[in-house]
Amino acid sequence: MKTFKFKGKSYKLRNKGNEVTLGELSKIASILNSEDDFTGKWLEVLSILGGKELVELLPIKEFFEAVQSVQISDVQSKIKKQITVNGRTYSVDIEKGEIILRAKDLKAIEDVASKGGAWASKAVAVVYKDDLLTDNEHYEPAHLKHKAKLFEDNIMADVASPIMFQLNAVQIKSKHKERIEIDGLVRSLIPFKKLTLGMFIDLESSIDDISKLCAILYTSGEDYAEIDIEQRSEQMECEPIDFVFGAYKSYLSFRDSFFKSYDIFSDPFEGIDLEEMDED
Prior knowledge:
With 280 residues, the protein is mainly alpha-helical. The protein is built from 13 helices and 9 strands. The protein has a 3-stranded antiparallel β-sheet with strand order 3-4-7.
C-alpha cells in the first residue's frame, strides 16, 4: 500500500498483489492490453487501485511515481496446485512448475478470450477444477461462469498472476508428432498431401474445433470410412495440448499455402465492376 498526501488528506493506492483481487487484475490486464494511450490506460488502472479522487488530484510527478510503484503481478511465484474458496477445494494439474493444458482446456479458454473484455478470471476458472465435480460438469458454461465470478472476488492477484502469465505465454511446440498414443493405441498422422477430398471437406467443417480436426488428421493407415470421428474427438479432448497442437498448427500452415497456390479458390472477378464491362 502506498500513501499520497494532498492538502492535508491521505489517499491510499493498493500496489501489491495481495491487495488486489483477480477480478481487478483481470480488468487491469484488459485495460493495459488495449490500444489506448499510455496515460489514459494508467489513469484507468490507478482509478481502480486508488479511486477517482486520487487520480483527479495526482500531479505529473506523483502520477509517474504511482505507476512505478504498482507491483501486482509477481509472475515468478510458484503456481499453487490447490486453492480453497468458500470451503471447496480446486486443483490444477502441474508438472515441473507448468500448468498441464488439455485440448479441451485450450478450446474453453479460447472461447472466453474471443469474446473480449476481462477474460482472465474465466480462464483461471477453466484451469482450476472443483475436486467434487466430474469432468463434464466442470466444462458446463453455467458452472464456469459461476466459478469465474466466485474467483474474481476471492482470489488475489499474487495467486492469479503467475497463472495468467503462463496462459498468455503458453509455449506450444510447433513441431508436430507423427505418432501419438491414445487409450493404448498408436495413431499416426496422415501426410497432408495424401488427404482425400472427403477428409478435406470434413477438416474444413471442423477448422475451429482442434480436437475434431486432429481426430481426422491422426488416421493414417486406417479405413477412414469406418472411424467414429466424434468418439475419437472426445478422446482427443482429454489429451495434453502438446500432443495435438503441433499438428493443428502444421495443418493450418499447409492449408494456407494450399489455398494460395490454387487460383480456383479465389474470385476471378475480384476488383472488377461487372456492370461496367462491355457485352463483348
